[in-house]
Amino acid sequence: MTEAMVQRDILRYLTVRGVPHARTNAGRAGGVRLAPEGWPDIVACYRGRFVAIECKRPGGVSSASQDAQHCWLRQNMAVVIVATSVEIVAKTLDGLTKLE
Predict the structure, then answer these.
(1) Domain span at 27
(2) Domain with 83 in it: what CATH number?
(3) Is residue 77 part of a domain?
């Protein structure tokens, strides 16, 4: 399974589950800065939590810039998921409780 396939499956899952989400792109397009380097592939909001999902093919690992973004996001109370399958995302979301 490729990273693109993992990402596609996760996007479908979030849509079916009714989780607000967006696919993000890093870099520049037409001279406009998009998300910063290393920004997660998908961002979502679930039960009051900001969720950042980095999609990887099975056996894939995150880059140094991705690791730095993940660390910064966690320091700011985000839930960060490095996902090689929909099951990882589902299990993590099921474990979240609403912020009080």
Answers:
(1) 3-95
(2) 3.40.1350.10
(3) yes
Q: Which residues of 1-100 form beta strands (DSSP E)?
A: 21-23, 28-29, 32-33, 42-46, 49-55, 79-83
Residue 31, pLDDT > 60, answer: yes
Q: What is the pLDDT of residue 44?
A: 98
For residue 76, is it within any domain?
yes
- Judge whether 100 lies within some domain: no
d(CA 16, CA 32): 32
Q: Residue 78: phi, psi to the nearest 5?
A: -80, 155
Convert the pLDDT of each residue in 45-87 to its tens digit: 999 999 999 999 999 999 999 999 999 999 999 999 999 999 9
| Residues in CB range of 47: below 8 A, 6 or more apart | 96, 97, 98, 99
